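Sample entry (214 residues):
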Amino acid sequence: MSGGPLRILLVDDHQLFRQGLMALLGQERDMSIVGQAGDGLQALSQIDQQQPELVILDLEMPQLNGLDTLSRARLKSPNLRVLCLSAHGDLRKISQALEAGACGYLLKECACDELLKAVRTVASGRVYLSPDVATAMAVNRHPSQRNGLAGAPLSPREKQILQLLVDGCTTRAIAECMHISSKTVSTHREHIMAKLNLKGIAQLTRYALREGLI
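Predicted structure, serialized as tokens:
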């Protein structure tokens, strides 16, 4: 991220909703709205032109739906942070969004304070799921999924490190908490990724939720 205000692109097909978001986020000194788009194709164009650091993205849009927009945006800009803001809490869609590279998922019925918290959490490199979404994913995970993905099971220490990672702890913080070196934490993280065949903190978070680890 840059040293200045967080550069945000708003993507939603309802202009009135976008204006409301602009009014809310525009009051925050650490945030700057650099563009807005009413459909997926406009969003991809704005990403090229404005180089935002974070995109607030609706999933139900014309021209190009949110999931396809998300996938293409992440291919174009791998470091781009994307926060999905949707009216729908469908678990399948939430899982698809996380798989596509979303760093957070929030329902439009949320309070303003929660939106600001979500934006700052995602911008800091962590994953944010609204409490209702996180609870629903943990409670409704399918029994066949509870034993994890293919590969070797995680050790107790790896599970502990995984929990700290998805809580947003840095490698250094984890090392200090567990009284081990940062290099050891990094090695454990690589082993976790390899065992689970996952990439990125968003996929790790989804796994941890499904397994009831968080």
